[in-house]
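Appendix C: a fully annotated inverse folding record. The material below is reproduced so that readers can follow the format used throughout the book. The structure is listed first as tokens, followed by the designed sequence.
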């Protein structure tokens, strides 16, 4: 394993790439759950409860990690480049792809729920003009870019009012014993209050601009803010705070089983009592925190590498994120009704999808887009 230039946190690049790949196999697994999700793109004829549990646990931490990584690197770019360049970069790399994805790819993803379920789907262009802008509106996975753009806007407003805060702290210290319990309590409260008014997995269309999970919105903002705080205090550097793998890893494993048991036993019912919502908020927030820092500790310990494969995966992770549903859906439709061993099918679809996404990103899309050249790390303005 080649490890160089310890001033750069390569493990964050590699963790980011891993989370994107995990997101791909997570979306594939959605089609194999026993829930028969009517709104999902392609539901396979074969089901297994393992995929229910995999989806439930993966859904908890993948986005908080992405928001935290984005929050960690955003102030670095903002302080170095200034407000104008920061805005220009985010508009180019976040806002424009978000708009393009919502207008031209999300309709196809929404339409695929008809394409995979009926022999006579409606005309696509008629669907796009009418139905998509009604009950079938969604932003697919591009919702993340919209919320991220909003968080970047809030960050620049905070920077405008108090630029002094965004100077690196000269007093590098580890967080107090109360820091993480307090953060867990804050995110628990945010989740619980939201869950009093909305179903825990509900999505809300905000004027066709944002797609928001109300129960998780503040939690995601907290993780973005935690990333900013971690950067300011030089966490994950040689001198700063570095999470212990054993402590966070063992806590995450314990919370994984606690969360899944609680989720299955108490929160999958139609009408969840308030007391059970409180327990759900506690287990969700605690598992999110422990899983996030366990993965950070794992990648910092074992995958802080500048090796070639990690460089290429990291460099292409944004493109893979952007296009993966365009690969997942056709492959899912092809194998949807094949009656073969479900594990062979799922693993085969996952490997095929990941390889195709990487090849398309590396050799077709990347050469024609203004990303960095071969051998360089990910563009610092792209948080994915």
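Designed amino acids, in order:
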């Amino acid at each position: 394993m080649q490890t160089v230039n310890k001033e750069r946190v390569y493990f964050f690049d590699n963790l980011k790439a891993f989370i994107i790949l995990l997101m791909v196999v997570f979306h594939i697994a959605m089609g194999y759950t026993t829930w028969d999700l009517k709104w999902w793109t392609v539901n396979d004829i074969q089901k297994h409860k393992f995929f229910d549990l995999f989806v439930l646990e993966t859904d908890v931490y993948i986005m908080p990690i992405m928001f935290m990584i984005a929050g960690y690197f955003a102030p670095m770019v903002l302080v170095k480049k200034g407000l104008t360049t920061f805005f220009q970069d985010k508009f180019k790399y976040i806002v424009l792809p978000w708009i393009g994805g919502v207008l031209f790819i999300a309709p196809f993803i929404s339409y695929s729920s008809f394409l995979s379920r009926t022999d006579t789907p409606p005309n696509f262009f008629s669907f796009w003009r009418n139905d998509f802008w009604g009950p079938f509106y969604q932003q697919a996975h591009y919702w993340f870019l919209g919320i991220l753009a909003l968080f970047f806007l809030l960050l620049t407003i905070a920077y405008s009012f108090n630029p002094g805060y965004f100077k690196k702290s000269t007093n590098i210290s580890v967080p107090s014993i109360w820091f993480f319990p307090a953060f867990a309590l804050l995110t628990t409260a945010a989740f619980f209050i939201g869950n009093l008014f909305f179903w825990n997995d509900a999505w809300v269309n905000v004027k066709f601009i944002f797609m928001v999970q109300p129960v998780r919105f503040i939690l995601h903002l907290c993780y973005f803010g935690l990333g900013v705080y971690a950067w300011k205090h030089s966490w994950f550097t040689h001198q700063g705070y570095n999470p212990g793998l054993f402590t966070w890893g063992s806590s995450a494993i314990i919370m994984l089983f606690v969360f899944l048991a609680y989720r299955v036993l108490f929160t999958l019912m139609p009408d969840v009592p308030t007391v059970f919502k409180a327990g759900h908020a506690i287990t969700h927030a605690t598992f999110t925190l422990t899983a996030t820092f366990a993965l950070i500790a794992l990648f910092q310990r074992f995958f802080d590498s500048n090796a070639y494969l990690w460089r290429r995966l990291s460099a292409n992770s944004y493109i893979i994120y952007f296009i993966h549903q365009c690969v997942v859906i056709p492959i899912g439709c092809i194998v949807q009704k094949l009656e073969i061993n479900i594990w062979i099918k799922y693993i085969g679809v996952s490997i095929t999808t990941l390889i195709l996404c990487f090849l398309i990103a590396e050799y077709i899309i990347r050469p024609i887009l203004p990303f960095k050249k071969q051998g360089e790390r990910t563009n610092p303005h792209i948080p994915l």
